Please model this.
Amino acid sequence: MAFLVWLAFVLGAALAQGGLAVFTGLVNVTANTFNTVACFPGDTGLQDPAADAADTGGDGDGFELNPLNAFADAGGNATNTDGAADRHRYYNYSISMGASCSITGIEVRLDWWLDSTAGVSSMSVELSWDGGTTWTSAKTDTVETTSEHTATLGGSSDTWGRTWAVSEFSNANFRARLTSNSDDDLRDFLLDWVPVTVYYGP
Ligand SMILES: [Ca+2]
Ligand SMILES: [Ca+2]
Ligand SMILES: [Ca+2]
Model:
């Protein structure tokens, strides 16, 4: 009988709300316990690097001029002069998400340009999940401009050819490595910003 009264009340409330059931409270429940932490779909937003290092390749000094300028949008740029084949790492992105999340995509943004479009030039990015020991295949932006343009490599459903663990985005593990490509040794590569966005879900 009590159940029927309750049912009539709920149905009446639902009708009164134009079909929306209204949650009014729990009866005979003393405790609610959630045993797992859900991962709601989302993304990290654009994360800035906070550390960098020149890598081997080319003349071995990467973005030798003002490399820290690539930590932020605007506010000056990093420069790799006569820079064909130079490589440079950016890291300490402080990427954070729930421990139970699955990685659905990784996006690297490059705000960059050239001193000249003479020759054939491009910029590539590889990612590391183990502090720079192992790298993904490279993705390359082949757009040549002499003023800043924004390239987006990867995306919300592109995991760069592998399955990632959340722990692989720690500052100790995750790295982005940029390579300046050109068949002209005189090309200068200018980089304003290299943020990373990680997309995740349950
Ligand atoms: Ca910019
Ligand atoms: Ca250089
Ligand atoms: Ca900048």
